[in-house]
Amino acid sequence: MPVAETTAGERPPIIAIDGLAKRYASGQDALKRIDLTIREGEIFALLGPNGAGKTTLISIICGIVNPSEGRITVVGHDIKRDYRAARAAIGLVPQELTTDAFESVWATVSFSRGLFGKAPNPTHIEKVLRDLSLWDKRDARIITLSGGMKRRVLIAKALAHEPRILFLDEPTAGVDVQLRQEMWAMVRELRRAGTTIILTTHYIEEAEEMADRIGVIRKGEIILVEEKAELMRKLGRKQLILSLAEPLTEIPDSLAAYGLDRSSDGATLTYTYDTQGQRTGITRLLADLSEAGLRYRDLQTRQSSLEDIFVGLLKERA
Questions:
Q1: pTM of whole model > 0.90?
Q2: Which residues are listed as membrane-spanning (predicted)?
Q3: What is the reported pLDDT for 111?
Q4: Are 74 and 86 in contact (CB under 8 A)?
Q5: Is residue 295 assigned to a domain?
Q6: Domain that holds residue 295
């Protein structure tokens, strides 16, 4: 997937990655020829199991780790030749809760702004703290905050210098459900304000809830990049679940072609079909059930989730 070229009137990607690879001295390939473009203003979710290369990829884009080969531009700036300009466009929220424990919230967020050469702007810092429900904690020392509040401080630090791009590396790891929902709402608000969000997560529901596009990385390779809605349309499956009037000890031979799954108690049959097929086979199945003398009390359908799709992709590429 080469870095996309733009045509007249089309906005260039805010991040363009071409042929990126990372090889350690041990010979391990952490990343293998990554080609990827990120559009301005989108929420892009990068999914993958632990050790797939998500954090390594982010670390290289942010200038924390050096690549072995390849080229990256951020807002048109090459991250090697014009590091300062590229890095100034990026806010990074790392996985680890690393903060200045004995500083106040206000001091540490304000200091982060100064690190990028930005003039003091108390109005902006106040807005960031209010947006993150940290205003009441502005004078509190970070060591006194809960884990969830510390994570909010990390986000505030990343936003202090008004970046155009925000990287969230496993932002809700270890936080409770309520805080996760609040953070999702905050991310949507940032996107509405024009910030581009790149999110790495192993919470499938996080990507399903928020992302515009989804990339799947496995063993250092991007195996798929797709619009979320299109991914679910193309790879989604539906299941027809039949609750039988009487339990079934075995599936009749006449129904073998349908690949039905029988529940352990024999009370239900599940038929999986492709939503993109010209014919689902449901009408024929119901007729054949009747011919086999099987009656059902109820039927319902279930659409496959993004988690089903993700697990299936990893199995397929194993």
A1: no
A2: none
A3: 94
A4: yes
A5: yes
A6: 237-316
